[in-house]
Amino acid sequence: MNGTIEVTARQWEAFLAGLYERGERLERRVAGENYPPEETVDAYVLSGHAEALRSAEVDGDVWGTLADLEEEAGDEEEAWARIVAFYLERGCVRVRVVDAPEPEEWVLEEALARRLGLTAGI
């Protein structure tokens, strides 16, 4: 899969609540299992696993990411478009929260998105 997955804010929050992090690995929670509080995943924890992001909750440093890619842009919208294009060309997946009051988009490796159930729909 190569492209964009669109979710609502409610789906996004439920998705985050359904994850846990053990060591350096993100996984989906299994119903009926107990997880220690330190394994809880929020947007900040997820940001450590994302290739790039644009979020009101977590600073994704769009300009820093663009500089890392050795690209230039005239404004933040163009910068984000260049970042997304770069990662999509490399097989990543963009997750867009369609009803967020501010832009909420995440770029994840396809293997991670698949393992977390994003490519099957949440």
Features:
about 120 residues; four-stranded mixed beta sheet; elongated; alpha+beta; 5 helices; about 20% strand
Description:
By secondary structure, this protein is an alpha+beta fold. It has a domain at 3-13 and 43-116. The chain is 33% helix and 20% strand. The strands form 2 sheets. The protein has a 4-stranded mixed β-sheet. It has a two-stranded antiparallel sheet with strand order 2-3. The longest helix is centred in the C-terminal third of the chain and has 13 residues, at 76-88. The protein is elongated. The protein starts with a strand and ends in a 7-residue tail after the last helix. The relative contact order is 0.24.
Blueprint of the fold:
Elements: E1 3-7, H1 9-17, E2 19-22, E3 25-28, H2 43-47, E4 52-54, H3 62-68, H4 76-88, E5 93-97, E6 105-108, H5 110-115
Parallel strand pairs: 1-5
Antiparallel strand pairs: 2-3, 4-6, 5-6
**Helix content percent band:** 25-40%
Q: Largest sheet, order of strands side by side?
A: 1-5-6-4
Multimeric status of the protein: single chain
Q: Report strand %.
A: 15-25%
**Overall residue-averaged pLDDT value:** 93
Count of helical regions? 5
Low-confidence segments? none
Distance between the termini: 15 Å
* Principal-axis shape: elongated
| Largest sheet descriptor | 4 strands, mixed
Gyration radius, to the nearest Å? 15 Å
Helix/strand/pairing class, anyone?
A: alpha+beta
Please give the number of β-strands: 6
Order of helices and strands: EHEEHEHHEEH
